[in-house]
């Protein structure tokens, strides 16, 4: 009884809360790359440092889970997104924005029934879960069958609509003409902006540099060998402007993404027909109101030609709801609190009036009127901010992680009790006497029935491939896949690709490893999955992409750099001795010969044929058809679905939901992010390497004591007698070097002032659509 009372009190305490999402401080990544540098930075953070400042680096999937959990949490009644100056939000691209918009849409629609799991729940491997901030909500039942005695309609009536609010000082982004911030904000049900703020809707644009003139000036020759007339990445070296094919492909991509963004803004802002003031009529001085169809592309062209929109312009068109002098969150919270107090007083007066009423008729009339008033109040409440308090993103994330840990422990205890009961009937009897009966034991019966899939310990493994596909990336991914291969509890692998491509050899190695996995592979394409990024995904059982994903680029190129003329102009000559004509072919000061050219061309032809064969086989397409959609051409996710390179449109959440439904016994499973993160102790132990001579343990103790002192209350007055370090800066530099170079001996090298630098090779033939990667790899040679 006391426990239920405490739960009710806690529920009341947490009720009517707004979750604040500070997008102006957020950096969205596929996976964090933890390092000792970031660790020391956190450890050295001053105690009085403003927690409302600084960049919050967050994995996309973590943010999606937080919003999905908020949608299910009855105590979170509103989302409040802050955008600051409108150009501080950092993301990988439009696909990231698209996935966050979809999560916000789920929050806005959480009062309705969905037939697909809302959350791509992260299991214990990453510290996230379906744990909730408050009590369980009826929305948890979404996607499940319902008893006939509890119709869905009744459940819908129990759930109030949740609203989302966004505020920005300005959406006048001078950096991003496509205005990702406003596109994200447009998913919120209400948008507020500072009254002097602007809104830029310039459209999407891109600028490409061309270096041919500069290279010619200095006598640098770049020989390109390519397959695919749309393989435009090396054009930066060989052309002075867009070629016909280059311009055609880029225009197609930009227009496809732009049209998708416009349609989504129209839908989320309900801008189908907008009434605007068209000025005084000719017959009178009264102002007339006209209607414009925002679905007309010409309207958007005119908006972009007009330029920057003022706040009043944006309100008139319907792109903004309110203008505010300052961030209205605090005033909205106060108003909601006062409104709730008035509502409670009104209900109290109604109860007293009904209780003291004389005569059935007057009482009946009074009750009828009160019910009508309440109905109107409920309808009016749907359009207003209901939250009375706020919780920060990091606070809510921490609560979810704690609750997830509690949930994980609870099920581990159940597993232990089940194991002991199977070994001894006496133990089972004792548990039963104590009130812990099989099969659920300490787990609530409803919770057990709803989450019985946890008994099977089935898992979905998510493996990220992020950035250029180099030999080192391939090695890391292959090691991860081989560990997954031996894990019998992993029922499906979700390959998450956000890469413009890279080495053909590295891409082939990952492709073959995926192909030989015993588990099925589902692929989720993020912002970019082109060339080598698509190569590794081509054989997946199912491929998901966002409409704004950039993919395809089925083509190959190789580069041969010749700087001999540049060297000669400065009086530098090169001569060589070799046993074969190709032994110095990759040298930057070796001119290209006919035989070298034939060899380069032959290798590029071979890799291109192989690439097409991989796509044809993996996608079950005719080879001639692949040739038509290949040629290095880049497609958006929407276009790729139309031509058969992608199966479904959707993000990581949808890909994981598909994997659960189709590749697990109960239609649900824990989700683990791979490679699994090591604990701090494991990382330090690995870095210290062999400590058989005692050096490792001694140094570990010194480092650990120093790290602890950095976060102590008197961190500036360290009194640790074992510490020989003189400053925080020295500790940070030392640990940074350990992280980069590794090993106990590096600590001693640091003390002696010596350092080491490591490097690695890469393949000459590239499967990439990114000019920056091409330049970087070329310069590394």
What are the defining features of this structure?
eight-stranded mixed sheet; 781 residues; six-stranded parallel sheet; alpha/beta; 24 strands; disordered C terminus
How would you state the average pLDDT, rounded?
A: 79
* Strand-residue proportion: 15-25%
Major sheet description: 8 strands, mixed
* Overall strand count: 24
Q: How helix-rich are the residues, as a percent range?
A: 40-55%
From the helix content, strand content and strand pairing, which structural class follows?
alpha/beta
Radius of gyration: 31 Å
C-alpha end-to-end distance: 73 Å
Unreliable parts: 46-50, 115-157, 357-382, 711-763, 777-781
Number of helices: 29
Task: Give the oligomer, counting copies of the same chain as homo and different chains as hetero.
Answer: single chain
Overall form: globular
Structure description:
The model is unreliable at 46-50, 115-157, 357-382, 711-763 and 777-781 (pLDDT under 50). Strands 14, 15, 17, 18, 19, 21, 22 and 23 form an eight-stranded mixed β-sheet that branches. A six-stranded parallel β-sheet has the order 12-6-5-4-1-13. The longest helix is centred in the middle third of the chain and has 31 residues, at 393-423. The protein is built from 29 helices and 24 strands. It has 781 residues and is of the alpha/beta class. The chain is globular, with a radius of gyration of 31 Å.
């Amino acid at each position: 009884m006391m426990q239920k009372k405490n739960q009710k009190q806690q529920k009341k305490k947490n009720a009517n809360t707004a979750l604040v999402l500070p997008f102006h401080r957020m950096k969205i990544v596929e996976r964090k790359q933890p390092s000792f540098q970031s660790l020391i930075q956190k450890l050295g953070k001053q105690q009085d440092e403003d927690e409302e400042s600084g960049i919050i680096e967050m994995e996309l999937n973590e943010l999606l889970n937080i919003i999905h959990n908020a949608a299910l949490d009855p105590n979170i009644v509103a989302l409040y997104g802050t955008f600051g100056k409108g150009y501080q939000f950092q993301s990988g691209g439009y696909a990231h924005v698209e996935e966050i918009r979809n999560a916000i849409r789920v929050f806005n629609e959480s009062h309705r029934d969905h037939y697909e799991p809302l959350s791509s729940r992260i299991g214990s491997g990453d510290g996230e879960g379906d744990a909730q901030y408050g009590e369980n909500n009826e929305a948890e039942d979404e996607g499940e069958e319902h008893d006939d005695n509890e119709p869905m309609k009744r459940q819908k009536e129990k759930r109030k609509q949740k609203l989302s609010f966004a505020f920005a000082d300005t959406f006048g982004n001078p950096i991003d003409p496509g205005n990702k911030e406003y596109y994200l904000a447009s998913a919120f049900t209400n948008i507020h902006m500072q009254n002097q703020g602007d809104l830029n809707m310039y459209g999407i644009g891109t600028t490409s540099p061309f270096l041919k003139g500069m290279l010619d000036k200095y006598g640098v020759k770049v020989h390109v060998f390519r397959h695919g007339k749309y393989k435009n990445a090396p054009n930066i070296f060989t052309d002075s402007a867009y070629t016909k094919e280059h311009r055609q492909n880029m225009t197609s991509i930009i227009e496809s993404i732009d049209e998708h963004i416009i349609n989504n803004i129209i839908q989320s802002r309900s801008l189908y027909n907008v009434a605007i003031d068209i000025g005084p009529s000719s017959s009178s001085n009264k102002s007339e109101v006209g209607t414009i169809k925002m679905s007309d592309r010409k309207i958007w062209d005119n908006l972009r030609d007009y330029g920057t929109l003022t706040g009043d312009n944006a309100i008139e068109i319907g792109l903004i709801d309110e203008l505010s002098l300052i961030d209205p969150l605090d005033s909205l919270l106060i108003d909601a609190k006062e409104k709730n107090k008035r509502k409670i007083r009104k209900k109290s007066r109604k109860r007293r009036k009904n209780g003291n009423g004389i005569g059935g008729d007057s009482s009946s009339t009074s009750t009828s009127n009160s019910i009508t008033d309440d109905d109107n109040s409920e309808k009016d409440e749907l359009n207003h901010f209901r939250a009375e308090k706020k919780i920060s993103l990091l606070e809510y994330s921490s609560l979810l992680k704690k609750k997830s840990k509690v949930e994980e422990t609870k099920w581990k205890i159940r597993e232990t009790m089940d194991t002991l009961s199977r070994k001894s009937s006496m133990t089972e009897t004792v548990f039963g006497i104590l009130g812990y009966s099989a099969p659920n034991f300490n787990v609530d019966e409803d919770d057990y029935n709803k989450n019985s899939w946890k008994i099977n310990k089935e898992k979905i493994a998510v493996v990220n491939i992020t950035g250029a596909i180099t030999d080192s990336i391939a090695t890391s991914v292959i090691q991860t896949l081989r560990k997954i291969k031996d894990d019998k509890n992993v029922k499906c692998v979700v390959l998450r690709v956000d890469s413009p491509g890279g080495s053909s050899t590295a891409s082939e190695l990952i492709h073959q490893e995926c192909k030989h996995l015993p588990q099925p592979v589902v692929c989720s394409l993020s912002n970019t999955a082109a060339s080598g990024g698509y190569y590794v995904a081509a054989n997946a059982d199912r491929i998901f992409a966002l409409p704004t994903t950039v993919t395809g680029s089925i083509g190959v190129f190789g580069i041969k750099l010749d700087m001999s003329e540049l060297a000669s102009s400065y009086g530098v000559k090169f001569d060589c001795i070799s046993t074969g004509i190709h032994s110095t072919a990759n040298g930057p000061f070796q001119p290209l010969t006919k035989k070298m050219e034939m060899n380069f061309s032959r290798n590029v032809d071979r890799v291109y044929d192989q690439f097409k064969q991989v796509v044809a086989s993996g996608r079950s397409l005719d080879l001639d058809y692949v040739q038509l959609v290949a040629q290095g051409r880049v497609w958006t996710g929407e276009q790729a679905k139309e031509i058969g390179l992608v199966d479904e449109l959707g993000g990581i959440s949808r890909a994981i939901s598909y994997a659960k439904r189709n590749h697990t016994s109960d239609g649900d499973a824990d989700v683990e992010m791979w490679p699994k993160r090591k604990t701090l102790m494991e990382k330090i132990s690995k870095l210290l390497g062999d400590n058989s001579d005692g050096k490792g343990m001694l140094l570990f103790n010194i480092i650990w004591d120093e790290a602890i002192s950095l976060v102590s209350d008197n961190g500036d007055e360290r009194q640790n007698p074992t510490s020989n370090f003189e400053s925080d800066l020295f500790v940070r530099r030392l640990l940074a070097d350990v992280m980069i170079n590794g090993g106990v001996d590096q600590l001693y090298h640091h003390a002696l002032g010596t350092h080491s630098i490591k490097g690695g090779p890469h393949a000459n033939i590239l499967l990439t659509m990114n000019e920056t990667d091409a330049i970087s790899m070329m310069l590394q040679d």
